[in-house]
Amino acid sequence: MTTETSLRHVLATLGEPLVEVVVAPHGLGVGVTDVVILDPEDPLEASPGDLVLVIGARGRAAAPAIRAAGRGGAAAVAVKGATGADVAADAGVALLTVGAEARWEQVESLARGVVEAARAGGEAAGGEVLGDLFALAQTIATLTGGLVSIEDTANRVLAYSRAGDEVDELRRLSILGREGPERYLAMLREWGVYQRLRAGEGIVRIDERPELGIRRRIAAGIHAGRQPLGTIWVQEGAQPLTERAETALLGASRTLAPQLIRARTRPSPELRLREDLLASLLEGRLDAESVADDIGADPARPAQVLAFSLERSDNRQLRRAELVHLIAVHTAAYRRSALVSVIGGRVYALLPDLPEHSDAAVLALAREIAGTARRHLDVPVRAALGGVVPRLSDAAASRGDADRVLAAMTRGHWAADVASLADVRAEVLLSEVLAYLGQQPRIRDPRLTALVEHDAEHGGILVPAVMAWLNAFGDVRAAARVLNIHPNTVRYRIRRAAEVSGVDFDDPAQRLLAQLQLRL
Prior knowledge:
five-stranded mixed sheet; five-stranded antiparallel sheet
């Protein structure tokens, strides 16, 4: 019988934003045997395997409690408020930070539930989505007067209403086996029932077939846009279905779509923890040594981050979840310890333990992912390669590179689905120079600011002419073709811009500054 659980399982159950791991000197596999509350005014004692909740001190004030927990062999210490990881690292104990709005009794209750479930040889209860589905199945049964079952697209029974009179053979076998029996499924396919259910929204009626053990039933497909998510079946029992049964079933099919999306997109607690660890690493909130053991990576080996952007979709949440799974499969095949997470709407993949000269292989991997996503998700996906960094601790820098590449791809209307920093380095560097210039009005040329203001008040024709001329490297005829005006008009507008501003466009330095500042 299991008598302890791991810190990893506790974190997976509590999860962000309730708690975050700051440092874990011995990894997340350390055993947790008890949850104890420690007030700094009490004797500072801890025992091996304790998860210590320090409730009376915040930030640096918790340092004595952290050291005491380390001396006692505690598995982890949880505190509120920002505190350095150095104290916990020196003490050899994992440090968790608790969200400012979280209640200590909530943290204690959840953590203790995990520990006590492990003592009993089980796991903490979950299944919120599943519980919602059973409750909704019962509600649909009440509204329709029938016996309800909810299935996914693979005909697996997800939930069903309480048993009633006149349960037919199809329903009985489906619930007992947790999926539709193949003999009956084949008949339904032959009758075209599944084709109609997956074709779109609407009610499908199945007549009673006493000789086959099938009573009358109605069904509706559950869809997210054009994508089928599952089916609701309502079997008629001892009493006829209600007059508004079909209306209620149609409404239920629409109500169920978001819940099935949640069920399909919500990761397991363990997977969610790995995603949280990666997000913390890429955002610089967690040191590489704390996460390396848990993901099986060498913190001293090179790493690289890929960023993926789902450009547009009718069912963005569902598509992004599918994209995460697709990326996870491809990257895990390339590096066993690869991690995937969603941050701010983008999907990031961390490739640790990279071999030398991996550039071509990673580029091919990104292209394969983008191509597969385009074919199977039917939406454009952009992929950006961050730079290879020498150590896992520099992964946040690689993520920053990937973000800048994605931004440059969007601004520059990059034709390909995939780009690396080398591909768009000029655009990235120019963007950063312009961002710096935009944040530093002190170093801008006031004459160019005056030109822009003057031009805005007098038809807005001078600045476009100057920009077209500068972009054409002084070729008046090329600038005229871009603006669709006569070359002499371009010459006049450039002379007029020089008169208004006082800028000498024959001076290379002033020309360069003008080209940069006017881009703002």
